[in-house]
Amino acid sequence: MSEQPKFKVTIDNISIEVPAGTTILNAARMIGGEVTPPAMCYYSKLKDSGGKCRTCLVEVSKGSEKDPRPMPKLMASCRTTVMDGMEVKNITSEKVVDARKGIVEFLLLNHPLDCPVCDQAGECDLQNLSYEHGAEATRYEFKRRTFEKEDIGPYISLHMTRCIMCFRCVFTADQLTDKREHGILERGDHAQISTMLNKSLDHDFIGNVIDVCPVGALTDKTFRFKNRVWFTKPVDAHRDCPTCSGKVRLWMRGEEVFRVTARKDQWGEVEEFICNECRFHKKETKDWVIEGPSVIARSSVIAQGHYVGNVGMKSSPALIDKVIGKQPKYTLDIHKVSDVNRPEIHLSEIEGPAHSDDFNKK
Amino acid sequence: MGVKLLLEHDKVEGIRYYDTYRKHGGYRAAEKAFKMAPADIVEEVKKSGLRGRGGAGFPTGMKWSFLAKPEGVPRHLVCNADESEPGTFKDRYLMEFHPHLFIEGLLISSFALGSNATYVYIRGEYAWIPEILEQAIAEAKNNGWLGKNILGSGFDCEIYVHRGAGAYICGEETALIESLEGKRGNPRMKPPFPAIQGVWMRPTVVNNVETIAAVVPIINMGGDEYAKIGVGKSTGTKLLSVCGNLNKPGVYEIDMTISVEEFIYSDEYCGGIPKGKRLKACIPGGSSVPIIPANLLLKTAKGETRYMNYESLSDGGFVSGSMMGSGGFIVLDEDQCVVRHTMTLARFYNHESCGQCSPCREGTGWMYKILKNIEYGKGKMSDIDLLWDIQRKIEGNTICPLGDAAAWPVAAAIRHFRDEFEWHVKNPDESQRRNYGLAHYADPIHVAATA
């Protein structure tokens, strides 16, 4: 068999050769950095996902070498495969930037913006997206849509109001489990993820819907309101698990394991799906073989103030190197404008959740 | 009197039944077709220049020739009878009163495309029509037109009628395919196109009812003869379902050579507007196409007469033209309120959005709420610009054309009737008591003399 043909594709004036059949989004991910379109619904581990959120729209300014006509509409890069000689504009196209701004506004239209009480805050794709691509304020002046709360079992909490309908959890249940209990009910702006007649989701691998959810619609009930993610330290660990690979990420504070999730790569995607046993029941340090601190691939708030003395954010070029050459963006340095916190007090050294007393100690 | 091809025997009593239909030359085209090679039938349809009658106007022959023909994989013809566009009811008329014409068209098309199992996806609300079709299918089968080895040609064909559950979105071809497979009617991402992977991942052609029926006269008279009817690329005849403020609403067959003015005012067709009222606006092709004011409807921006055909109706693009669409001709007289009308359409699209992709799911509801505010006198001036921006961000950014269909009516209403919107905002109390009226919407357009 002959070798798979390679296609040359140019994204924002950066050329790369990729195997035929690669999508534009994956080609852009191979280049990395700013040219990668954001993706809220596409998940490389899930077949048929993508195409729904429309945040990854790009302009194809040249179809291919054979057919150089530009494509008339903006294309969903996660579902469009590259052609040889294709030229794609992402951040260099005004149309794309404008459309993406619109999409972010649409996604946030009915989103409750309850980040202060949402467990996903700090690792939320929608937060990142709106920070990087959205406008400062919405023009929506109407009452936001809400949903009745539904109980879907002892481990997973469903907050439909926050959902952006990425369909990832539906694909996860379809492809990881043998029986899907939840799906889409209703249509249009009342479409909701739900189960028929209040079924509980109880499959060995159903906990993965929490990890694939880009927002706080599906969260871990065993971790609910226990801590903010940026106060916990991510640590890679493993155990001999009979059902899954057992390779997980522990979110710890001191000796305490607050949460167990699958390991995520730099695109926020799970590397290996883990089972419910690992996720919900193994919350002791002694259950795990600790490998070491996780590399937080994206410039995220989680990376702030961790690992005191080891990899200080400001002092270590090594860590900056790890975060794909990108200095983390800080919206502002709180200490410049306020005396509220004391920089010499490291949040990670505080036992248990932070309390005002911790800062009042002289 | 224009040419009548589809509704030729419209006045014949009992044309619904096989015997009458056969007596009036029915199934002659099928007899002829079975003596031809399937590729020749496709060639005839190509020559006829027939364009898809469902709304997009894509050449049917071209669509058929795109159908992939892999070895050992069954192919399917699916007929889109999910006619849910507000203002369009021509397919219902055709299926209800001329079921055998439709079935003959299906049979010929199935033979041309090699579809042994042909599906008719019929709108859920058309509750009584599947029975008519099924009765006609049984009649055709009893007379050897369906089933095994039709006319000794070795070709087998079965037609199945599938009832939809009443969703506008299932009129979109990929959503229709999903729904036919028994799934939730969400449009699929394209590519792959249905011609490559359609129903059950098999090559599929999805055609409108009228398109399928038009195959019968094409085979009867030959593609070249058919192409002589009409003008330019608008060949053959088109069914129009006419409604709104007219003396004679109903289904009409036109040969696309008459002017819009003649169509509205002549006694042969719509018979003018009741009570001598004046024309204000018109949606010439079903609710999704842009609404245009009376002056632009009768004359193009260049001052030429506008005709009832694909090219002339879309002359001027969306700036000063509209589209032929599916042929749902909706006429508004001077007493109608464009704001209210646009709100009604926005509510419809909000209701029918499938909820799969974000611009349409969130944007349609937003537009409806803003339009509702304006209509009920709670609007702001900035709302009009906001509406424009929302529709701009929906259009072209969605998976399926429903997003465009929701955006276009709003865009066109603001483009042509902006002062009516502004009047609503500026006179919130008065707008609750009376309509804006005709204003200047029927005034002749100033055409700049060319140098």
Explained architecture:
The complex is a heterodimer of chains A (362) and B (451). Chain A is of the alpha+beta class and 362 residues long. Chain A has helices at residues 24-31, 94-109, 125-133, 168-176, 208-212, 276-281, 317-322, 334-337, 356-360, and strands spanning 6-11, 14-19, 57-62, 75-76, 86-89, 150-151, 156-158, 182-185, 192-195, 218-220, 233-238, 247-253, 256-262, 289-293. Chain A has a five-stranded mixed sheet with strand order 2-1-5-3-4, with helices on both faces. A four-stranded antiparallel sheet of chain A has the order 13-12-11-14. In chain A, a hairpin with a 2-residue loop joins strand 12 (247-253) and strand 13. Chain B is of the alpha/beta class and 451 residues long. Chain B has helices spanning 18-23, 28-34, 38-48, 60-65, 90-97, 99-113, 129-142, 173-180, 209-221, 223-228, 260-265, 294-298, 310-313, 317-320, 338-352, 358-375, 381-394, 402-426, 430-433; strands at 75-81, 115-122, 158-163, 204-208, 230-231, 234-235, 238-244, 250-254, 279-283, 292-293, 328-333. In chain B, a hairpin with a 5-residue loop joins strand 7 and strand 8. Chain B is built from 19 helices and eleven strands. Chain B is 42% helix and 12% strand. Chain B has three domains: 18-228, NADH-ubiquinone oxidoreductase 51kDa subunit (Rossmann fold), CATH 3.40.50.11540; 240-325, Ubiquitin-like (UB roll); 338-433, Up-down Bundle (de novo design (two linked rop proteins)).
For the largest beta-sheet of chain B, the strand count, sense and barrel status come to:
5 strands, mixed
- Rg over alpha carbons of chain B: 22 Å
Query: What radius of gyration of chain A results from the CA coordinates?
Result: 22 Å
Number of strands of chain A: 14
Query: What is the residue-averaged pLDDT of chain A?
Result: 85
Beta-strand proportion of chain B:
5-15%
> What general outline of chain A do the C-alpha atoms trace?
globular
N-end to C-end Cα span of chain B = 40 Å
In CATH, the topology of the largest domain in chain B is named Rossmann fold
- Strand residue percentage of chain A: 15-25%
How far apart are the first and last residues' alpha carbons of chain A, in Å?
73 Å
Tell the overall outline of chain B: globular
Q: Please report the number of helical segments of chain A.
A: 9
